[in-house]
User: Fold Serine acetyltransferase from Antarctobacter heliothermus.
Amino acid sequence: MADTGISAQVPDWSRERIERFWEPGKKMIRALRRYQACRGRGVFGRGLSRYWVVNHWFWSLMCQSELHLTTQVGGGLRLTHPTGIIIHPEARIGVNCMIFHQVTLAGPVVLGGHVDVGAGAKLIGPLTVGDHAVIGANAVVTRDVPAGATVAGVPARVISGG
Assistant:
């Protein structure tokens, strides 16, 4: 069960803090955030946003992941082992979520706050995952997941909580 001591509403920005040189997941998230902050800020902002596009492209290539620059991402996102993560541009990720490697958010998937998505999970939208939910490794989720639930399996079903 998820540690409910982590907020589903208030972002913990320390989870995104870059502390070492080689933290490609955190650097990819930083590029996304800086791009979103720069776009639409006049000529200087457009020029700077192009830099962050190239930076994001580089870290996406290093991670072999696809996190679109227009995706809505809440603060405190952790990409643990950020390889092979594919996130649809219409997906929305809540605060303090954690996504492991080889995860796919296909279509308009909405993750609530503090959702942990296990390695290899596939979430095929449209669907909504409630706050403090846990998606098991290799689960295939095709339906909404209630808040506080743990789901696993193919197709995914609630195994506890919710």
About this structure: The helical segments are 24-38, 42-63. Residues 22-63 form one domain.
